[in-house]
Amino acid sequence: MEDDSALAPAVESILATARERAAEGGTDRVAVDPRDLRAAFDRAEADGRVPVIAEVKPTSPTTEGSREDDPVALAEGMVAGGAAALSVLTEPEHFGGSVDTLERVREAVDVPVLRKDFVVAESQLDAVASDVVLLIARFVGDDLPALLDAARDRGFQVLVEVHDRAELAAAIDAGATFVGVNNRDLAKLEVDLETFESVAPEVPDDVTLVAESGIGSPADARRMRAAGADALLVGSAIMDGDVTANTHALTRAEADESEETDESEETEADPTETST
Ligand SMILES: O=C(O)c1ccccc1NCC(=O)[C@H](O)[C@H](O)COP(=O)(O)O
Description:
Elements: H1 9-24, H2 37-46, E1 52-56, H3 71-80, E2 85-89, H4 92-95, H5 99-108, E3 113-116, E4 132-136, H6 137-140, H7 144-153, E5 157-162, H8 165-174, E6 178-182, E7 184-185, E8 190-191, H9 194-199, E9 208-212, H10 218-226, E10 231-234, H11 236-239, H12 243-251, H13 253-275
Parallel strand pairs: 1-2, 1-10, 2-3, 3-4, 4-5, 5-6, 6-9, 9-10
Antiparallel strand pairs: 7-8
The protein binds ligand LARABZUK.
């Protein structure tokens, strides 16, 4: 385990409860037949949608209040908005998530579902089946290769989250094929989209690259895509209001911009047409 003395108090608390849950143990070993995440991204691209992992995130340490709607209805709304995949928080104390929610959502939709939690020990992998699990490089430290193997042995696809180039190197050394660059600094809980822009150029081409956190608008989505994101993970901006409309705006970010460009080119062309 890495030294976590520099983490924000909320994150220290998240990790302390994750360790308590890991110590509880006691569930049977999970075996997953996963829905293919890369194929879901490719289908979205082929359909003209930005591949978006939309996150069911009832609350968080940086959110005021909590969203009490049925998470299954929210998840279905995100898929209706074009989400290629979903992320479901299962962390109960700080994010209002649960394994029961994930099970219900995964049963209701046909897209891949990422389990978003703070896994620090192998026993936590057996809490619930999902198509993808998250491993956060900073929190698992030297245990990353062993946890990656343990997750894959159970059938999970693994998204390894990094925040800087050193963590990226550790993820690549461990054999990660899906890497998420988190724009949220877990030491200060501040978000800066430049984080992704500085780490993305170092990511090998054969790795599927996800931009995580702080993506609040179609312009942000385009910015992350221009910097090399194969997919985007978005929580707060989708959960704030109409989840279907919010997801749609992000998945259509590139198509809508090219339509706007075409329209403005047509408008500019009109005077030329009349003068000839
Ligand atoms: O979101 C938080 O407040 C948070 C606080 C402490 C640790 C982790 C946190 N978020 C985890 C996430 O990975 C995000 O939920 C996810 O990337 C979506 O971010 P956003 O689109 O900014 O909600």
